[in-house]
Amino acid sequence: MTGRPPWFKVFSRRFARPGGFSRRFARPGGAVGIGGLLLVWWLLAAMGAAGGTIPTPVDVISTMARDGTALYWPNFAVTSSGALQGFLWGNGLAIALAVLVVLIPPVESLATQLAILSYCTPLLALGPIILVVFGGRAPTIFLAAMYCFFTTMVGTLTGLRSADKASLDLVEAYGGGKWQKFTKVRLFAAAPNTFAALKIAAPSAVLGAILGEYLGGVDSGIGVALTAAQTSFNVPRTWGLAIAAAAMAGLGYAIVSVVAWAATPWTAASSARAAQS
């Protein structure tokens, strides 16, 4: 009998279960919704709604095909890099601060005020300041990070505090301290909420990166390409870039969802039981 790593067993059970994997990803309702959206889009374009600024799906797709990778690849690579860096910085700081609040409760007031300040401050007003002080792509990374910070901190903190009290008491009864409670109970309790927040943070990071590029100081990126398309009144290209940007945000959400599915199998199992009941 050959030993297999735990991750192999988890994935084997997932794929072996009848409909286990496909059931989650087969969403006929989503396909119907997309089809309906395309139909409405086509009708609005055919009727010349909004002064003819709505191109048909065929016009958009053909323009995207003509532009090809020469336009999309370099700009999307730059924006995705900035969004990823902001995602890592913003979520890393948010999770670290949430952990600090749980381990050192006296800092909660300061941490909460910092989180609220980051949420209430008009970030676009800070962007030009960051651009002047640091220059380059700093605003892109900064805005991407700030758009992630609040949601992830609240989600992680809520998850850490949702740990089962009986489990915490059991660890304490066996002589465990605050750190043992954190690593053996709170960390696992926080995982579902943290990943739920990260799913929201992924598209938010893309949005922040694009807004940062709108501020200027860079010569490539989705924001720069969108500005150029709007300035030249190239409506199909503008729509194509917007749709591709939305697809990139959706891809970020999907990637985090897959990671969450693999990292928290107990959550998926409980959801499946709840759906069957």
Description:
This protein has 13 helices and no strands. With 277 residues, the protein is mainly α. The protein has one domain (54-269): Orthogonal Bundle (MetI-like fold), CATH 1.10.3720.
Quick description:
This protein is mostly helical and 277 residues long.
- Architecture per CATH nomenclature, i.e. the level-2 architecture: Orthogonal Bundle
Helix content: over 70%
Q: What is the CATH superfamily?
A: MetI-like
Mean pLDDT: 83
Task: Give keywords.
single chain; 277 residues; mainly alpha; MetI-like fold; globular
Q: What is the strand and helix layout of this fold?
A:
Layout: H1 6-16, H2 22-25, H3 28-46, H4 49-52, H5 57-103, H6 108-120, H7 123-134, H8 138-161, H9 165-173, H10 178-214, H11 222-231, H12 235-263, H13 265-276
Helix pairs in contact: 5-8, 5-10, 5-11, 5-12, 6-8, 7-8, 8-10, 9-10, 10-11, 10-12, 11-12
